[in-house]
Queue: 4 jobs
Job 1
Amino acid sequence: MAVEELEAELPRLIEEQVALRIQQMTATLQQELETAHVRALEAFVQDVNVKLVKRISALETNITSQGEAMSELRGHLRRTEDNLVRLITGVERLTRDLPAGKL
C-alpha cells in the first residue's frame, strides 16, 4: 500500500519541487536583471557626467577667452575715444586759429 500512496503522491511532490525551483530561478533571474539594470544606469550616469564636465570645462574656457577679448576691446575703445577727442580738439583749435575769411 505504501507504493500505491507514493505513486499517488509523486506527481504532487514533483510539481511542488518544480514550482519551488521555478520560483528560485525566477527570483535569481529578477535579481540579476535588476543588478544589470542598475549597472547600466550607473554607467549611463557616469558617461553623462564625463561628457557634462567636458562641456562645462569647454564653456568655462570660452567664457574666459571672451572675457579677455572684451577687456582688450574695451582698451581699444578707450584709446579710440582718446584719439577721437584729440582729433576733435585739434580741429577745433585749427578752426579757431584760422582767420575768419579762410574757412
Job 2
Amino acid sequence: MASPWRAARQAQGLTLTQLAALADLHPSCLSRFERGVGGLRLPTIRRLADALGLHELATTLAAVDDRGGDRDGQGTPANRARTRALAQRQHKARLQARRD
C-alpha cells in the first residue's frame, strides 16, 4: 500500500526529487518518510504539505506548532519535565541496583 504522502505527490505529477526541492528536503529523507522508515519533525511536515498544495493541512500544522510543538527537538516544557523526571527515576533505580 502506497503512503498517502506518495499518493499526493504522484497525484500532483511530481517526482520525489522535485517535491524534495520544493519542500527543501533531501530526496533520501523524503523517500524514507514516504516508505514509513523515517519520521519528520512537524515544521518539515508542514513544508511538505505546503509544497503539495495541501494548504489546509499546512495551516493546521502551523497552528499546532505555534502552540508549542517540537520546534527545537525538545518538545513542550511539560514533555521536557516528564522526560527529566523519568531520567531521574531511572538513575535512582540504577544506583539502587548497584547497592543491592
Job 3
Amino acid sequence: MAAADLAAWAVVLQKLGLHAAPSVTSNFNMSFLSRPSPGDLLADSELLKLGKRQAVCAVRISSNGALVAHATVTYAIVLHPPT
C-alpha cells in the first residue's frame, strides 16, 4: 500500500514540482487481485486528472509482469511558493 501511495505522490510531484511536496492523500482505494510471486514488485503510476485542488492517480502493482493489485489515489494539493 505504501508503494502505491509513494508512486502516486511521485507522479504528482513530477507534474507540479517540489513546491507541491506538502500535498496529502485524501482518498486511497486498493484492490488486491492475486497473490504476488516472491521477489520484487513494480508500481506503475498514471496521473488521471489534475485539478486546482486535487489530483487523481491510478497505480498498477505487478509481480513478474502479472498484475497483482490496482489502486486509485486522490491527493489534496497543497502548494507552497518556491523559495
Job 4
Amino acid sequence: MEESKEPIIFTVRLVAHDDSESVKVEVTQRIRVATLIEAYAETKKISAQALRLFVNGARVNAGQTLGDIMDLLQEADNDIYVQLEQTGG
C-alpha cells in the first residue's frame, strides 16, 4: 500500500488575545506560522510584526511549520492564540 502524497487539510482557529473574535483557517502541515501571522494581520488591518502566536502556552516562532507544532496543536484543539506585542512603558 502506497502512502498518500496529498497534504492533509485541517482547520485551525486563531483566537484574539482578548477572546473578542476568532478566525478559522484551513491549512496543511506545510504552512509556515509566518503565513498565518501575515494573513491574520491583513484581516485585522494591524502590523504583522506586532503579533505573537501561542499554542497551549508555548510561543510559536514564525519560521516553524504547523507540522513542527502538531502535537501542541492537537493538545490545544487546534487553537492558536494571538497576542499583540506590548511596547513602551
